[in-house]
Give the backbone structure.
Amino acid sequence: MNIVKNRKIFFSISSVLVAASLILLIVVGIKPSIEFAGGSLYEVRYTDAYPSLEEVRSSVDSLGYGGSIVQPVGEDSYSVKTQFLTEEERQALRDAMSIGGSYSTEEIRYTSIGPSIGKELKEKATLAFILVALGIILFIAYAFRKISVSSENKKGENVSSFKYGLTAVICLVHDVIITSGIYVLFGKFMGAELDSLFVVAILTVLGVSVNDTIVVFDRIRDNLLTNEENRTKEEFSETIEKSIKQTLARSINTSITVIAVLLALYFFGPVTTKIFALTMTVGMFIGTFSSIFLAAPFILVWKRK
């Protein structure tokens, strides 16, 4: 299969996925966790008998705390996400989860974050993504500053090194949007929320994705320089196709290895990391797709403008 010749197909697939993801993000959205919105998370394990979800939910609702969400965790625990709690309210919540002392409970986790701290974490996460994107543009622009198109280019035209960096960032934005769109579905059907693990997953996916993209770009650079040294006339599209094929096995093998580990974490790891592992798996798949089928062909689009 010629990836460059079929680039419009891959561009179309990506456009549809991005559009669908944006619709999901705008219409449905991702519910922020207490880390970003502020509030309290309380989790207990039942050491003897295990109450039904309806019992726990009814008991917690009787406290009158705003926006309380009760969720089962594993086979013997429940968690409650609710408003920011004082120490007295926390004790009242524990009593409610034990159904007035009818069930023996053991406190597993308690996290409480004020609204101001949640806002600060949100701002830092946004800043982290902006700095990552800016750093990628500057690094790639510097690393590819001496690149030229090919020896068949008689007029000295070239693809600016800045465009290589910008292309990488466009692919990263593509990865973030689609992964986030799928994460909306995780939130709808699995209770996933916008938390620090999601931010970590996104930043990790960006790192792996941009590394794959740089490998392809570096191979394009090497092939162009080889063509210049050997005075070989080769269409830029042919150079790109050859470079993609030379790095294809490496990109796929890397992704398969990482995804295998993530799937093991999903099936055999703790409950708290399942959504993280699933998000990383989706992100790895999308990132590999963009680095192979979008990044290098998009350089050809830049060249022809």
Summary: Residues 186 and 192 are 5 Å apart (CA to CA). Residues 196-230 form the longest helix (35 residues).
